[in-house]
Amino acid sequence: MATRDYAKRGRKPRAKGRKAASKPAFPWLRLVLVIALIGGFGYFLWSIQGASDGQPVADTPVAVPVTKPKPAKAEPALPEKPQETWEYIETLPEKEVEVEVPKQELGGPYQMQCGSFRKQSQAEAMKAKIAFMGMESQVRRTTGSNGVWFRVVLGPYERKRVAESERHKVQRGGINGCQIWLWN
C-alpha cells in the first residue's frame, strides 16, 4: 500500500449551501429589555421615597395637627446598692470535710491467655515465639465438653496493669488476641 501525504493534500472545499462562520449579531432586544427593567426599578424606588417620609405621594397638602409635648415626670431616685457580706470567707477555713473512701479490693492474681489450640504442636510453637520475646509461658491441657484444648498462658500477675504491659509487649511481637483473666 502506498503512503499518503495528508499534509500536502489540503482541505476539502466547502459545500455551496453552507455560510461562512461569522460573529453572532449583538442582542439588541436583550439590551433594551435590561435597560427598561433597570429604569422601572429606579422609578419604583423614587416613587416610594416620598411615602417613607410619612407624606403622601401626591402633591396635595394635608393638615397635620400640632400637639404640645408634655413635661416629663421626675422619677424617684434608685436606692443605694447594699453592701454584700460573705460568711464563707471566715467560716470556710474552720470547716473540715470528712469523706469515706471504700478500700479497693484486689482482684487477685491475673493470667494472660494468648492462644488455645487443638494440637499440642501449635501451642508449643506459640510458646517458642513468646520465649523469643523474652517472656515465659506455659502450655496447659484442658479437657472440656467439646474435647481437649491446649492453652498458652502467661502469668500469674499480681496487678492487672503489669499484665496489660506484658500484653503490649506480646502485641509488638506480632501476637494479637491475648486475653487477661483472673487466675482460677
TrEMBL record:
Keyword terms of this UniProt record: Cell cycle, Cell division, Membrane, Transmembrane, Transmembrane helix
GO biological process: cell division
Any single Pfam family the record assigns to this protein: SPOR
Gene3D superfamilies for this protein: Sporulation related repeat
Transmembrane stretches, start-end: 28-46
Protein origin, superkingdom: Bacteria
Domain SPOR: 104-184
InterPro entries, alphabetized: Cell_div_SPOR-domain (IPR052521), SPOR-like_dom (IPR007730), SPOR-like_sf (IPR036680)
One term of GO molecular function: peptidoglycan binding
Designated name of the protein: Cell division protein FtsN
Protein species of origin: Ferrimonas sediminum
